[in-house]
Each structure stands twice: as C-alpha cells, then as structure tokens.
Amino acid sequence: MELYFTRLHWNTHTFPVAATADGLCYVGAWDEPEDLFDDWSRKHFPRADRIASDTALAPYTEQLLAYLNQQSTTLSFPLAPVGTPFQLEVWNALRAVPYGQTATYSDIAECLFRPNATRAIGTAIGKNRLLLAIPCHRIIGKKGDLLGYHGGLNMKRTLLALEQRL
C-alpha cells in the first residue's frame, strides 16, 4: 500500500494532507508539526510506502484550496477515514451539517439516536483527522460556545467565519 502526503499552503499556514488509493485519509491542523502526522501514519499504516507527492494529492489540495478561498462550498473527492465503527458513524453524521451552519454535540447524538452519548460523540469528534473534509469545526457547545478542536480554537473560529462570509 502507498500513502501519499504533502503540505497544503494557504495564506500563512500549511496543512499536512495524505491519501491512499481509496481516498483522502488525513487533513491535519494548520501549522501542525510533522511528527503528529508521522506518528499517525505509522500507527494506522505501518507497512505503507510513504511517498511525498504534490501531483498525487493535487485533486484533493485543489478542492481544499477552493473551499478555503471561498470559491466552493463542497468537496467531492473520495474519503478514506481511519477509525472505529462508532467514530465512522459520528464522522458521517458530521458530514450532514451544511456549509455555513453549526450543530451541537447533542444534535449529533440525537441524529444518531444516542441521546445519552454526547461525551462519547465528543471524544469521537476529537479523533477526526480529516479536518475540513469532515467538518467537525461546525460542532459547537449547547450554549453556542466554541469547544475543543484538534486545530485549536483560532482555526475553528477562522473556518466558521469563512463559511459565514460566503
């Protein structure tokens, strides 16, 4: 198996991005240290050949840049998320939150018919490593407050503001 990776450059930030033949599997936080991606890839793809390739990732990075530059509100490439069945279920529910809108952890719990699982859902959301593509930045607290985000609250705030402007 081959794991292709590159860094997406946007404004003053860079994001690690990776994909397999099945689809995009990793979009990290802006300015994320390389060792976080290295650790993740070794854990989830221990036998993969890691190949740096801007060309192989161009279909993904072009759409991600169009999203970040407010030229597109949708991403149409295949995803290959790596997680447990529960995490995949939660992440799939996140993809249903429309561009420019937010939902609460409780909303996701209700959507999954697990009204008492908000804490587990929050933990699953925190494990999402397909930032932007699986829009966990759209999930907020019950009172409208911004809660934890792998990319940090500044990144979350920026992404939410970006979506509100279009």
Write up this protein.
The chain has 166 residues and is of the alpha/beta class. Helices cover 39% and strands 18% of the residues. It is built from 6 helices and 6 strands; from the N terminus they run E-E-E-H-E-H-H-E-H-H-E-H. The strands form 2 sheets. A 4-stranded mixed sheet has the order 3-2-1-4, sandwiched between helices. The protein has a two-stranded parallel ribbon with strand order 5-6. Helix 4 crosses helix 5. It starts with a strand and ends with a helix. Pfam families: DNA_binding_1 (PF01035), Methyltransf_1N (PF02870). This is Methylated-DNA--[protein]-cysteine S-methyltransferase. It catalyses: a 4-O-methyl-thymidine in DNA + L-cysteinyl-[protein] = a thymidine in DNA + S-methyl-L-cysteinyl-[protein]; a 6-O-methyl-2'-deoxyguanosine in DNA + L-cysteinyl-[protein] = S-methyl-L-cysteinyl-[protein] + a 2'-deoxyguanosine in DNA.
Supply database-style keywords.
single chain, 166 residues, alpha/beta, four-stranded mixed beta sheet, two-stranded parallel sheet, globular, methyltransferase
Task: Report the C-alpha radius of gyration, rounded.
Answer: 15 Å
Task: Describe the main β-sheet briefly.
Answer: 4 strands, mixed
Oligomer: single chain
What order do the helices and strands follow? EEEHEHHEHHEH
The mean pLDDT is 95
The fraction of residues in strands falls at 15-25%
Low-confidence stretches: none
Task: Give the neighbour order of strands across the main sheet.
Answer: 3-2-1-4
What structural class is derived from the secondary structure elements?
A: alpha/beta
